[in-house]
Design brief:
Elements: E1 5-9, H1 18-32, E2 36-40, H2 68-79, H3 82-94, E3 99-102, H4 113-119, E4 124-127, E5 141-142, E6 145-146, H5 157-160, H6 168-184, H7 186-190, E7 193-196, H8 199-207, E8 215-217, E9 235-239, H9 248-258, E10 262-265, H10 271-281, E11 285-289, H11 293-301, E12 303-308, H12 318-325, E13 330-333, E14 348-351, H13 356-368, H14 371-388, H15 391-404
Helix pairs in contact: 9-10, 9-13, 12-14
Length: 422
């Protein structure tokens, strides 16, 4: 019995962020089950090694030091890459994938490859890690807060609001790209199913006109191995990107109001501003910078709770699952997919997004909680994780979807991820 081949597509072939983490873990699970993975990505100095990287598209980074002429030359590739079409055609001539699963392909690879896959009769799945299919700027977030102005085909608002890096030029490029693929019905014609990690995103995309029948709810899973947390730590910890949409300023204000010490792990474009705010408010904030792997886990083990003060429509934050795997309760803003991952009073608590007073109350609540009750909440979080957010459940759901699209998955070992966390 022939084992299936997966064409796995993503802009980057290294762990750059949450989407890349899911992409790489997905590949690892499929290979672990006995399948073959053929990656298609963009050339990048930090990429992992691959026997297929000669087919990757050339590097395209608008943050790089290109001249104005060089940037202008790259614009068409951002909107509709003919290079990606040619290279994936060559790749398909070399291998014969049974299915394609794409993750983030906007701007670097571009959706131009989807039509090629359709012509080859290769079923195609796309995981929606963000809101790009509805919002040209990914986040439904404008300078004045949550924004759905582009709804109903009014994508020009992305230019009007200068949503991309406060630049009318970059926002115009994104507008043209989104409008073109909307007119071509690229995703509607060429994508068989959309994998969506949160129920909130399914509802939001449905509001914006994407058929529910084409969306499949498959939640993410934690890469952390489970560890018991017999004695809870002392500080509430945030870990992730340091950007305004993450609600870091609100968290610092809440910490000052509550008189509670917090820990912030990560870097981002606004970290110096946040450090200045903490000093100004005399808030007890420990800034740890970027941490990963064992160093990150060690800091998390010293945490009494993890907090997500987000102020945009989060999808399904992996940080919640990572906290649960270490038996740490979670405080989360009531926005996006966060509330559906928290059982109120059982695995943590929610608070009104962008409300420092409500968050301060939750910080005091968790800070004053005795070790026994705090540990019980952490254990409940781990139980929730084991019920619905494991490698084995993710793999079985993915393979069921592939089988529905005509892929013969019988030769794969669907138990390879093991029980519990895998």
């Amino acid at each position: 019995m022939t084992r299936p081949t997966l064409l796995s597509v993503n802009n980057y072939y290294y762990k750059r962020g949450g989407a890349e983490g899911v992409f790489l873990s997905h590949n690892k699970l499929f290979e672990g089950a006995g399948g073959t993975v053929v990656p298609f990505s963009m050339q990048h100095p930090e990429n992992m090694a691959s026997a297929w990287d000669s087919y990757f598209v050339d590097e395209l980074e608008y943050g790089a030091g290109y001249s104005l002429v060089q940037k202008a030359w790259r614009v068409p590739k951002t909107i509709y890459s003919l290079e990606a079409q040619k290279k994936i055609t060559r790749l398909l001539d070399e291998c014969a994938p049974d299915i394609c699963h794409a993750h983030n392909i906007y701007h670097h690879i571009s959706p131009s490859i989807l039509g090629v896959l359709h012509k080859r009769k290769i079923p195609t799945v796309v995981t929606l890690h963000d809101l790009k299919l509805a919002c040209p700027a990914y986040k439904m977030l404008a300078p004045d807060g949550i924004c759905e102005r582009c709804k109903g085909g009014r994508q020009f608002n992305v230019v009007k609001q200068k949503c991309i890096k406060d630049s009318r030029l970059l926002s115009s490029i994104v507008y043209i790209e989104s409008k073109l693929h909307s007119l071509l019905r690229t995703y509607e014609r060429y994508v068989d199913r959309f994998v969506v990690p949160s129920q909130f995103y399914i509802e939001k995309f449905a509001e914006w006109g994407i058929s529910r029948e084409r969306m499949v709810y498959i939640p993410n899973f934690s890469e952390f191995e489970p560890e018991s947390q017999e004695t809870p730590g002392k500080l509430v910890t945030y870990f992730g990107r340091l950007g305004h949409e993450k609600g870091i300023a609100t968290l610092i204000r809440a910490a000052a109001l509550a008189g509670v010490a917090i820990r912030i792990i990560g870097t981002g474009p606004d970290d110096e501003e946040f450090k200045s705010l903490a000093t100004q408010l005399d808030a007890q904030v420990e800034f740890c910078g970027y941490l990963s792997g064992p160093a990150l886990k060690e800091k998390l083990r010293l945490s009494k709770a993890v907090v997500l003060p987000s102020e945009w429509y989060e999808n399904a934050p992996l940080s919640i699952l990572e906290a649960y795997s270490l038996e740490i309760p979670v405080l989360g803003a009531d926005i996006g997919g966060i509330p559906e991952m928290i059982r109120e009073g059982l695995t943590g608590a929610t608070f009104a997004s962008a409300d420092p007073q409500q968050l301060a109350e939750k910080l005091v609540w968790i800070n004053d909680m005795d070790a026994k009750n705090c540990h019980a909440m952490g254990v409940a979080g781990r139980t929730l994780l084991e019920q619905d957010f494991t490698r084995s459940k993710y793999l079985s759901r993915i393979l069921a979807l592939y089988a529905e699209l005509g892929v013969d998955v019988r030769a794969l070992d669907q138990t390879v991820a093991g029980n519990g966390f895998g």
